Input
Amino acid sequence: MAYKYEPIAKEDTYKLIKEAQAGDQKARETVVSQNIGLVKNLAMKYASGYYEPEDLMQVGFVGLVKAIDRFDTKFDVMFSTYAVPMILGEIKRYLRDDGKIKISRQLKTEMKNLKNLQQEYYNKHGASPKISYLALELGVSSERVMEILEAIDSLANVESLDNETMQSGRQTWEYKDEEEQNVKLIDLKMAIRDLEDRERQIIILRYFKDMTQQQIAQILGISQVQVSRIEKRVLSRMREKIESV
Output
């Protein structure tokens, strides 16, 4: 069950954050306390047998504190909307670096054999095999099968972090609700702020005006190939900038 927390009025949060940024430790602690539920909900998305919720929450609080220090009321959004990518950024960095799973050669072999066995069974029976069946076929205990399955799940979690958003081609950035869209828009605005004029114009026309590379090339008086190269280069830099926040 998700940890419930009560939303705080935007104006009240803005006031507390300004006080915290001015050095008021009590105000800072209040903002942190108000967002414990937010941090816990985000941390629980990545908790597993390899990552303790408490550890991920501590990492998430680092992101929350950074959000408090860097938040600008000119964004005119709920603080939680700004804080989410900061908190997730710290958690993802931890998973990529400090918390990344180290897989032994034996475990890699077991994972491969188990997945092959699952696929063969599904192709034949149209259903997933039971743990007992997998254990019998692999010649290991049911407990070991559970460990291998958990390793596969955790590894998939980490690998998925490296495949998010910003591919070299055209991006759509679709989200389930308006708040998630606002989060990405904030990320984009922060990332494009320091781009050169032509780079910024290409990104705006491409992703905010929904123009094709050929249309942009005609407007700027350059070739479609040049637009493609600039776009690819800028997206790579923007991704690095967003992930380093």
